[in-house]
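Morning F.,

Quick status update on the modeling queue. The single chain you submitted on Monday has been processed. Sequence for confirmation:
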Amino acid sequence: MVSPGLALFDFDGTITSKDSLPDFIQHAVGLPAWWLGLLKISPMLAAYRLGMIPNHIAKEKLISAFFKGWDTKSFHAVADQYSGTKIDRIVRPEAMKKIRWHQARGDQVVVVSASMESWLRKWCERNKLDLIATRLEIQDGQLTGRFSTKNCYGREKVTRIKGKYNLSEYSDIYAYGDSRGDKEMLSIATIKFYKRID
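Structure tokens below.
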């Protein structure tokens, strides 16, 4: 009997047609607050685009600008609503078709994302997918604006995958990604797809 494969899917840009981070923030705070917030942190964003601030710092500052101090229950309610009713709008049909193909084969299918676990969890549960993602820090029932894990990007994706799965148990390891943040994950795959889903 052939053992099942492990199928690793990046989320933003691979499963989806757009980045869920700005999409979620707009859903959570509304467009006027979104544009005002971007204006306030525009110097930081400019520094990021110039390569002066690394990805994980820029993302944490973006999250902090909009959500620091939010009540955890309120945030999770908004995140669950987005995950349950909004994500499907930006999901690529061809990606879902490939996910279902892997599931029909009996493969272990995992979403491995630098986005927040908060707004991906319900969608993954509904579609019977495992999830590895970045987590937000909570103190005294509020978001601190910081991450409680490393940003699940680049090498951290591989570290988190290997921490959860014994790769030697799988007949094949498939990986699907679309950006440089996925290259390390793609490097551990026996079958890899970069910027395409066949």
